[in-house]
Design goal:
This protein has three helices and 13 strands; from the N terminus they run ααβββββββββββββα. The protein has a single domain, classed as Lipoprotein localisation LolA/LolB/LppX (outer membrane lipoprotein receptor (LolB), chain A), CATH 2.50.20.10.
Length: about 260
């Protein structure tokens, strides 16, 4: 009798533990947000970088054009990062410069300097879904990843290219975004984005971004050196290769303003 009561008591304890665990289990939204926060936390403290890069544009027939550029980035504590992209080749785009101020909760600020016109053009928030310099990257794709820009939902675990990944759905908060949702494969080992699917305003798959050739800097920061954006609706694609990357080059806020656009060389 005593043994029966003890077994019954232990069974009740197990049942109560299970109920308590379920009560505190993460929802898909909570887990998605937690993954996004960890992804951001692992890429904090890098300071500033300067990169030399190549962009290869391909049309639906496979014809290519190559552009060379320098990309300067500055980490901003408590807000989105700043970026300055300067095109060096070919001649028809040389001197063109793009300045981006990402923000966590406010609309991003973006400007494009066109040397032929000798004027700075501001990119409207309503137009940020437009193509950047004829590529398959939209202006909004060039903003830094900020947790507050989206709502999240964990979908599933999945293996991609031999890596165990979280698959997370993100929905832009900004009503002017060109996307209704993004599906991102984030590797569990380092919380790096491996693949991103972009869905247009009609909910159809528009583009897929793959990120490869990750390299680690300073024992902590991972950077993909080969990005490929494929537009499934037009057949066009853009590849972005990072040929050289330096950290802690001494950049400051003074290197990222509209005056810097015009003097960018």
């Amino acid at each position: 009798m005593q043994k029966t009561l003890l077994n019954w008591f232990n069974t009740c304890l197990v049942a109560l533990a299970l109920i308590a665990g379920l009560a505190h289990a993460e929802t898909p939204e909570e887990k998605g947000l937690a993954i996004a926060k960890e992804r951001k936390a692992r890429n904090t403290g890098w300071g500033d970088t300067v990169a030399e890069a190549r962009m290869i544009l391909r049309n639906a027939q496979g014809e290519e054009s190559v552009r060379r550029m320098r990309i300067k980035s500055l980490e901003v504590q408590g807000d989105g990062d700043k970026g300055l992209t300067i095109f060096d080749e070919p001649r028809d785009v040389a001197g063109t410069a793009f300045l981006n101020f990402s923000h966590a909760t406010e609309p991003d600020e973006q400007w494009l300097y066109l040397p032929a016109l000798k004027r700075v053009k501001r990119i409207s928030s309503r137009n940020k879904s437009g193509p950047f310099m004829g590529s398959e990257f939209a202006y909004e794709d060039l903003s830094s990843f900020e947790v507050e820009k989206y709502t999240y939902r964990y979908l599933r675990d999945e293996t991609l290219d031999g890596m165990d990944c979280f698959v997370v759905e993100s929905k832009p908060v900004d009503k002017y975004s060109g996307y209704t949702r993004l599906i991102t494969w984030v590797d569990k080992a380092h919380y790096r984005p491996i693949k991103v699917e972009f869905y247009d305003r009609k909910g159809s798959l528009l583009k897929t971004l793959t990120l490869k050739d990750y390299r680690q800097y300073e024992g902590k920061f991972w950077r993909a050196h080969h990005l490929t954006m494929i537009n499934h609706q037009t057949g066009k694609s853009t590849e972005l290769f990072t040929d050289k990357l330096q950290f802690h080059t001494g950049l400051t806020d003074a290197d990222f303003n509209k005056a810097a656009l015009k003097r960018a060389r």
